[in-house]
Amino acid sequence: MISQSLRRIKAIAWKEFVQIKRDPRSLAMALGIPVFLLLIFGYGLSLDIDNVRTVVWNQDGSELSRNFLLNFKNSKYFKIIGYTDNYRTIQNMIDSGDAMLALIIPKDFSRIIDSGKQAPLQLIADGSDANTANIAMNYVRSVVSAYNINIMSQTLAQLELQPRRRIDARSRIWFNMGLNSTWFIVPGVIAMIIMIIASLLTSICIAREWERGTMEQLISTPVKGPELIIGKFIPYFAIGFFDLSVGVVCGEFLFGVPFRGSYLLLFVLSTLFLTGALSQGILISVVGRTQLMASQLATLTTMLPTVLLSGFIYPIFNMPQALQLVTYLIPARYYITVLRELFLKGGGIHSLWDEALFLSLFAVLMLGMAIGKFKKKVA
After folding, report:
1. Which of 135-139, 206-210, 223-227 has the lowest mean pLDDT?
2. Whether 255 and 367 share a structural domain
3. Domain enclosing residue 332, as ranges
4. 320-350: string of b/e by CB count within 10 Å (b at 16+)?
5. pLDDT exceeds cutoff 60 at 160
6. Partner of 257 for a Cys bridge, out of 36, 75, 136, 251, CB 3.0 to 4.6 A?
């Protein structure tokens, strides 16, 4: 009985392999889209904000004010695109989007500093992009703070004084010393690709049989429901692991993201996640009955939650409390944690036990529901 069941599963799997091979669109989606998404997100998406376009109005014109502006010129975070002598030009440049930030150094800037007082510095930022404007303002505050510390050190040195109390904060960044956002993004992209591709591909595999009228032929064969589901599952499982391998290789050798964990653990946990994602797609295909309905359901239930609620881009702790509770139901949240832990931290199963448990439950639940929902009935 077992050997007969295995032969039937093998026949269904081989049929699906042939069908995928003869369908260039599915083959392109399975093999080409993952590489395309990796390149787009890896090179195009960055959480770092560099070259903030800045216009300057230096009303003081002194050597000290020019030296102060060198701190912005020499910073990779700012790009001084021009100088002006009036507010109207500043307004026009910010309104047109040519400049994002304006620095206005007032008159008597150097005299106020030389007198030991605090000199004002006016900042005007384009607030239409609130997040970017806030980051740019923080960059300015960082430059000003470093400049103030430098002036204080020079003053104390000239007076040959040492402060009695001093805080010497020495920071050290673990796991991503260069704060490279690509290292943060690429593992998330891999998880997103696996989830989306797996669900989209399998979401149409059963529905396609119903639409083409071939499901009636399969129903008339001795193939059982679970055998049909598993046979459909196997080809896409192989494709999913191919996409995962491409993602890991591109992440390491193309984007330079270090892999510090265990490849065996990556294989085991990826198997759990891929099983759940593929089973979810098959379940959607069984319920949807049509390819259009199945693909739309797959998009709503996989793509949007993975991008918005998994922590891929937006930090979960910044979300409203209600949405934070919803994220516990998003499997990509746990798999992204797994990938970032293995890539950047080199953690083991002891630090990923919770994620492994949820992915196991997700895989068992989705596969069980897909098998249970499918019935060998025409209507």
Report:
1. 206-210
2. yes
3. 2-45+182-373
4. eeeeeeebeebbbbbbbbbbbbbbbeebeee
5. no
6. 251
